[in-house]
Amino acid sequence: MDYTIWLMEGLSSQRYIISGIHDLFENIQIVFLKNSNIAVIVVASHCQKRNEILSQANVALIEPDD
Hints:
This protein has 66 residues and is an alpha/beta fold. It has helices at 14-31, 51-54; strands at 2-7, 39-46, 59-62. Helix 1 links the parallel strand 1 and strand 2 (39-46).
């Protein structure tokens, strides 16, 4: 089973939240879900090309300006 989390522009610390999600899920997988095939896919979007944010996500999207 896969879970998808989408973080849109407007979150002031988008990059740190993405990093925290990856770290948290990795620790949960190690401790509680050792033999499972669960994956978390993080999608991040922003209206500007913000590589420091978008490069942290599994999927990066550019939002429209309007």
